[in-house]
Amino acid sequence: MALTHYACTHCGGWILWFDSREPVACPNCTDVRNALPQEDFTYLPIGEAPGQFSTQWQETLPGLWEFWTTPQLGLGSHGWLLQRDEGNIAFEAAPFYDEASRRQLAVLGGIRVLAASHPHGYGALWQLQKFFDPELIIHKDDLKYTKAFRVNHPIDDFHAIGAEHEMLRLGGHYEGQTALYDHPRRILFLGDALKIDFDAAGVPVALSCHKGYHYAIPLTRDELLHYREVFGRFDFAHVCTPFEFGRGVNQALATALIDYLLTHGIHTSPVPLTSLQAYV
Ligand SMILES: [Zn+2]
Ligand SMILES: [Zn+2]
Asked: Structurally, how many domains does the chain consist of?
């Protein structure tokens, strides 16, 4: 029986399933870390995506390209492309890549290494794998979520990509949630280890930590301590989540949030950056 890819329109995650009938349920949405759709599941077969959705991109920082989809598909993940002389790294993925974005990715040098922090950043990784045949890296503890593509390089808790990029397991939100540090640009791609609240002008104003966002499930003390250890290793100036660029969310602010939560009690409410200044 032939297989095809369906996007869950609620979360935007892709499911590989029989082309003769829709998937039974979305594994992302039935997970305790996510909400269920209000009514029932609805799916978008890949054949119906072109024309309904288009892919946008911008150069967010020199050599750092950001891709997303309009209108928003599901949670609206953003994919990142880091240009490198040794071959580009793509981290996380937009929910859909149209023909124009595929050409743009090729113009930018294609993809040598493809990875993601955790399932909320997977987007259409499977399309990027199909187009560019990169080395596809995922932490071994998240392999169970990767049915829509083929991981050809499972990793342990530490992995170096050349001399300037390192991947470290964060855990917490997802068992295998893994950060990528880009030394040249001082950016930590940290999955959903931090949730950033922005003001109307797009400036970060508050931070929070979650095991599960929708049910407001906090992290454990040991999970927070592990986040702190990973944050402490890198002198980052900015962060990238699977959804946005956190300009100025640096190592001092990120570690200050952990110290704040360990001091005041662990919760999931946003902590204003002004409250964190005393811990910086
Ligand atoms: Zn879903
Ligand atoms: Zn997440």
From this structure: 1
Say how far apart CA 92 and CA 114 lie, in whole Å.
8
What would the pLDDT profile of 65-81 be if each residue is shown by its tens digit? 999 999 999 999 999 99
Give me the count of residues in the chain: 280
Distance 207 CA to ligand 1 centre (A): 25
pLDDT, mean of residues 42-67: 98
Say how many Å lie between the CA of residue 192 and the centre of ligand 2: 5
- Closest by alpha carbon to 257, among 244, 235, 272, 242? 272
Its domain, for residue 64, covers 3-279
What is the CA(210)–ligand 1 centre distance, in A?
19
User: What's the rounded Cα separation, in Å, for the pair 280 and 260?
Assistant: 10
CATH code, domain carrying 244 = 3.60.15.10
Q: How confident is the model at residue 1 (pLDDT cuts 50, 70, 90)?
A: confident
Distances, alpha carbon 178 to alpha carbons 9, 102, 106, 245, in Å? 25, 26, 26, 17
Question: Residue 173 Cα, ligand 2 centroid: separation in angstroms?
Answer: 7
pLDDT digits (tens, 9 = 90+) for 165-214: 999 999 999 999 999 999 999 999 999 999 999 999 999 999 999 999 99
User: Separation of 194 CA from ligand 1 center, angstroms?
Assistant: 21
- The whole-model pTM stands at 0.97
